[in-house]
Backbone:
């Protein structure tokens, strides 16, 4: 479990912490609209965490600021073994307990709630989805939105308080978005940031499992009848 130190509340909220120097200069000018963010969702961090980030880097980014609980799931190797058994017609049963990190549930110094869902890949666990909720009871919502805008720039669609940053154009449903996406939703009670690698990445993860299983248990050649 990661330890949390006493930090200034707003300073650690999203590692959106402070606006960048260009953003501060832009604010001082007062008339320039933030530029459209072009680096893409995979380059955007939430609480110092990026989509696709390996587990070790995630733990390093959160150490000392967020206190996290870890929940386990089947590792990439266990998923391959499960697929091999399926191909061989062996009942799966309950199987062994998961040995990989499936998700992390974390709490920050300002009471923010962060949940990271991990994908299992041949190289290990990486961040697949990010959910961050910050209550406006302890942090001013206008300040949060200002940090979002200062760090991320203009969203692909919508406005910084309720918008999305996508690869090109955004799909209608966050859960079915094919490509990486960061979405912000805010109201009088909270500001939420959601991130996803997208459906195409998850399909690629599944294909990698099946490809590894196929190398161990090739499909038997079948006749026409």
Residues:
């Amino acid at each position: 479990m990661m330890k949390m130190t006493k930090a200034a509340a707003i300073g650690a909220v999203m590692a959106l912490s402070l606006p960048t120097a260009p953003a501060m200069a832009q604010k001082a000018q007062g008339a320039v609209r933030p530029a459209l963010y072009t680096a893409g969702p995979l380059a955007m961090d939430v609480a110092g965490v990026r989509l696709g980030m390996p587990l070790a880097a995630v733990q390093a980014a959160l150490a000392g600021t967020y206190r996290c609980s870890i929940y386990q799931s089947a590792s990439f190797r266990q998923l391959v073994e499960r697929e091999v058994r399926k191909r061989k017609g062996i009942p799966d049963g309950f199987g062994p307990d998961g040995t990989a990190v499936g998700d992390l549930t974390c709490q920050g110094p300002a009471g923010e709630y962060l949940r990271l869902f991990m994908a299992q890949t041949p190289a290990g666990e990486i961040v697949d989805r990010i959910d961050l909720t910050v209550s406006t009871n302890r942090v001013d919502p206008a300040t949060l939105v200002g940090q979002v805008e200062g760090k991320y720039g203009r969203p692909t669609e919508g406005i910084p308080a309720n918008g999305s940053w996508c690869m090109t154009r955004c799909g209608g449903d966050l859960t079915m978005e094919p490509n990486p996406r960061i979405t912000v939703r805010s109201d009088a009670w909270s500001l939420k940031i959601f991130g996803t690698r997208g459906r195409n990445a998850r399909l690629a993860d599944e294909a990698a499992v099946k490809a590894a299983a196929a190398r161990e248990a090739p499909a038997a050649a079948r006749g026409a009848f």
Remarks:
- Confidence is low (pLDDT under 50) at residues 1-12, 16-32.
- The first helix runs from residue 21 to 29.
- The radius of gyration is 21 Å.
- The first strand starts at residue 45 and ends at 46.
